[in-house]
Amino acid sequence: MQLEATLNKYFGYSSFRPGQKEVIEQLVKGQDVIALLPTGMGKSLCYQLPGYIFEAPVLIISPLLSLMQDQVTQMKQNGEKRVIAINSFLTTEQKQNALNYLHQYRFIFISPEMLLQAHVQNRLSQMALSLIVIDEAHCISQWGFDFRPDYLRIGEVFDRENRPPILALSATATDKVLGDVEKYLKMKTPYKYIHSVDRPNIHLGKRFFRDQEDKLQWILQHVQDTEGPGIIYTQSRSKTESISERLLQLGISVASYHAGKDALDRQFIQQQFIEGSLDWIVATNSFGMGVNKQDVRQVIHFSIPSNVASYMQEIGRAGRDGEHALAIILYTDGDEDVARMLATDDLPTEHHIERYAQYISQNENVKNMIQNGEISETALRVLDYWMVQLPREQVAHILTEMKREKLLEIDEMMGIVRTEKCMRERIVHYFGQTLASKPENCCEGCGLTFSDIIRPREKDKASYRPITWRERIESILLGNE
């Protein structure tokens, strides 16, 4: 089979990017594959092209609704009609209709939680699938153990002899994460394609401040003085709101984005950013995964990320067009203490284990722990998974280890913040790789000059206030558009 001819026929490209052909060749042979390809390297083509080669549908398990919807929209815009996302955006009637005709689709997107519903599994078991794709596969390790345990159950759904090949895709993963992916997906001696995590066109900066107000004043001035588009990451919803409000007052085209906003508002804000109506987004880490915006010039971390993998995922949203981009970490003494608190806040404690056991012994629904204010929904989800899997004593050990690892990950991130040597070298080494070469203006430790990377902002841009989807609809109904 001439893969280049198929590539040209369906996508109009004459050659593959590094890693794409190697991955597709193995999938065509029926081999399980783990592919580590940096953001912007065309991971989605690794399953889209096989979708046109194979006869049966491709199932893509995706972590976020916004990511799923964005990928479906892009494929439809490129002319693919046989694509669907099974998620909470569909009504009950729409879901049932979709399941009835599921075999007619070429690409089926679904979340881990939806995949584990009995009626969905039953429908999939009646179908022949050509390929199972786990997009953003690092989430199995990064989220599965302590946030969304349903990720750990994906492998159980497809644990049968005659299953199709599994493709696990990610942009960043350590050897440990890759091991978790292989184990929990129950992969069969997978072929591994590991590309360097380094993105030479992203230049790594950092700034240190006396206090939070000093940091805030710097970012307000920096955004006024330098070009976007850009993303500012914070660790709290309230901080995203306050920073975006201050920037709006300065005439910056900006919006805040976090999980507390209405789902349609989030989708609308994301679309405004992609289309260029917004120059900046101030967001929690719920924003950005899978957002296909090529020209992001800056990613700024107002708070330190909880781990190096998250940091690399987030700065990887910059410079997808291959042009120079800037990633800046802002640090004030004590930021790491806040990061430690947030990283471990939703982990169940030994007290929770004891109370869980009491509820079970009294034949009481453990979900009442949430209603009684004893535990958060996330913590119960984690606890419920492990209490079913292991004896009580082992659960306590698992949770202690999870907390210890989270604190160590923050220490690793602080090592990058505090190092006076090359940041890029340290990051690449964290992923078990070796840095082949350094770009000019590599990082803070190598003598980075921001003005060599980022152009000044055009000062004559008009003031802007982002509109919600509701206001947009009202405007259309009133005939203003």
Automatic annotation (TrEMBL):
Residue span, Helicase ATP-binding domain: 24-191
Q: What SUPFAM superfamilies does UniProt report for this protein, alphabetically?
A: P-loop containing nucleoside triphosphate hydrolases (SSF52540)
Q: Which UniProt keywords apply?
A: ATP-binding, DNA-binding, Helicase, Hydrolase, Nucleotide-binding
> Keyword Cell wall biogenesis/degradation: yes or no?
no
Q: Does the keyword Lipid metabolism apply?
A: no
> What's one GO MF term for it?
ATP binding
Ranges where the Helicase C-terminal domain occurs: 215-374
Q: Which CDD domains match?
A: DEXHc_RecQ
Q: Which Gene3D superfamilies match?
A: P-loop containing nucleotide triphosphate hydrolases (3.40.50.300)
* BP GO annotations: DNA recombination; DNA repair
Which protein are we looking at?
Answer: ATP-dependent DNA helicase
- Organism of derivation: Ureibacillus massiliensis 4400831 = CIP 108448 = CCUG 49529
Q: What is the lineage of its organism?
A: Bacteria, Bacillati, Bacillota, Bacilli, Bacillales
